[in-house]
């Protein structure tokens, strides 16, 4: 059974009458509380599927925090605290564990998230589950997009997929591109403040993080919002076209179907794009408009390619093993 | 490095100035929020260390929920919701996964806790991290005991340790004792409603769950409260003395130093014991007074044995591998 099938089975069997799990559909759970809601997510980092070759323990710890920071901040929620459940292997040395803890410490500072608890266990491979939470009046949902809005991303896609090609399949790259590609894998940096600020401004109608890849993220928005998405400007990073050519790869494939991405995808009404972009610039980021929402066919994603519409496949979520 | 050493290193390095992790000391983190606090805990169940031979997948799922229910309810907090991070192995069959999900479903009903989210991963052994939370005005702490109070437990100890002796070392037992011992391992049942009701009544001055064993639990209370604990009536279950004799084991060892226990330990002022016991009886349970808190030596635990005081060792937390 694959992940989606298992999740569907869980939703079917475990749905609580007062809290149907199927209503969640976002990467976070929202629990109404007094004035604000508790927003919480849980992510398990698994050594054999989530850790690329060459990543050090400090970077592994950081990535486990990033996975959850990305969940919350893409929904516009400031991460408040995190519980870290550690599964340590017997072969890990004291220096490995210290490096891991240093990674938690610096990620905690970088993202302003307090480590408030957790537990330590012995496992046959390194496992880190982060349960991160924040408090918020509302979240940006996946299902809030309307037709005729701009589809906008926080940065280019495809560097992590290229990095994996370099690490796992010995793809060739010039020095600068290689550094960027590996850096995107080893030190992923979600635009977490931008996610929060845009939500605060009330601009985005929908949003999603992109850890399953751009194509899957766009499909989630199109399906849950009941719109079509047409991509006119595929967000290709500098050097990727050359990299693809050199290695006989298809650039669009790397951009659309790679995983390990930590950008945010939003839909934004046209008249608010200017304001959104000013907010982004103030934070040293830029928004990249990549396409538009259309009224139909709902739940579909297209790419304009030389005047023709090409269907984007609903796939992605590349694991490392 | 053992668990305690790793936790101490984490506390030293990751303590957040605004939220020093060392202040936690309980099995739960308490996050002040509007009127009430968010109370949250995270526990990882690991197949190789937490699953005894013969336990089925439905029982495994239930146990993972029980571990967290025990954390919260021993602190007097009603569990509200849980996020379940699953690590499934490639060799698990569809029927195994269905059995696992059935276990979550029935545990969710048994303990009234909503499964509100989580994620699914592939791991080299089965891993389940439960992050459970509730909302409360306060918790019963480990450090609230005073001298001259009753030390009280929710039931006898030693059945899980006996069950492990039966399963792992072929210890002999009569049919009835064997059923009780294995049942305590396969279907642990924390007195979760009693934990909540006693806290509501304001009776306990301190409390702790006992998953690391009775001795360690008593030490935690004595150390964090700055009292001495003297055990006068060791809580031995029916049949355990005979079981120990048959297998050349020491009964007190099984009671004090076994792990996998899901009872609660409280300290209670003498004049309130009658009321506490009436509350327990109303819920079909009984409180067992096992000893007293004394003013000194602080941080120590003794057992009266034929008029003599015998020092209890600070050990326990027996793992299955």
What can you tell me about this protein's structure?
The structure is a homodimer of 321-residue chains. Chain A is an alpha+beta fold and 321 residues long. Chain A folds into two domains: 16-136, PurM-like, N-terminal domain (60s Ribosomal Protein L30, Chain: A, 2-Layer Sandwich); 149-311, Phosphoribosyl-aminoimidazole Synthetase, Chain A, domain 2 (Alpha-Beta Complex). Chain A has eleven helices and twelve strands. The first copy, chain A, has helices spanning 3-14, 47-50, 57-74, 94-111, 159-169, 175-186, 192-201, 214-225, 240-246, 251-257, 273-282, and strands at residues 29-32, 37-46, 81-88, 114-122, 127-136, 149-153, 206-209, 228-231, 264-269, 288-294, 300-305, 308-311. In chain A, the strands form two sheets. Chain A has a seven-stranded mixed beta sheet. A five-stranded mixed beta sheet of chain A has the order 1-2-5-3-4. In chain A, β11 and β12 form a beta hairpin. Residues 16-24 of chain A have low confidence and may be disordered. Chains A and B meet through α1, β2, β3, α4 and β4 of A and α1, β2, β3, α4 and β4 of B.
């Amino acid at each position: 059974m694959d992940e989606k099938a298992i999740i569907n089975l869980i939703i079917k069997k475990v749905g609580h009458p007062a809290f149907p799990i199927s209503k969640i559909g976002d990467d976070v759970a929202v629990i109404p509380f007094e004035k604000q809601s508790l927003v919480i997510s849980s992510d398990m980092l698994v050594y054999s599927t989530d850790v690329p070759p060459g990543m050090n323990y400090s970077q592994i710890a950081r990535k486990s925090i990033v996975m959850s920071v990305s969940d919350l901040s893409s929904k516009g929620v400031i991460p408040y605290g995190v519980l870290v459940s550690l599964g340590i292997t017997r072969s890990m040395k004291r220096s490995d564990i210290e490096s891991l803890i240093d990674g938690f410490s610096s990620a905690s500072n970088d993202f302003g998230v307090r480590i408030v608890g957790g537990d330590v266990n012995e496992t046959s491979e390194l496992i880190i589950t982060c349960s991160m939470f924040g408090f918020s009046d509302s979240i940006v949902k996946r299902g809030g997009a309307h037709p005729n809005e701009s589809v906008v991303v926080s940065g280019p896609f495809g560097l992590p997929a290229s990095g994996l090609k370099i690490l796992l399949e010995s793809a060739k790259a010039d020095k600068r591109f290689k550094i960027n590609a590996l850096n995107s894998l080893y030190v992923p940096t979600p635009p977490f403040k931008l996610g929060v600020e845009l939500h605060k401004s009330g601009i985005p109608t929908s949003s999603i993080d992109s850890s399953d890849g751009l194509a899957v993220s766009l499909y989630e928005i199109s399906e849950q919002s009941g719109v079509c998405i047409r991509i006119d400007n595929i967000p290709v990073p500098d050097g990727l076209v050359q990299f693809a050519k050199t290695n006989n790869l298809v650039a669009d494939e790397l951009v659309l179907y790679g995983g390990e991405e930590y950008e945010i995808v939003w839909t934004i009404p046209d008249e608010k794009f200017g304001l959104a972009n000013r907010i982004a610039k103030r934070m040293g980021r830029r928004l990249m408009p990549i396409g538009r929402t259309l009224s139909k066919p709902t739940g579909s994603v297209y790419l304009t390619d030389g005047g023709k519409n090409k269907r984007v496949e609903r796939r992605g979520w590349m694991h490392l093993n």
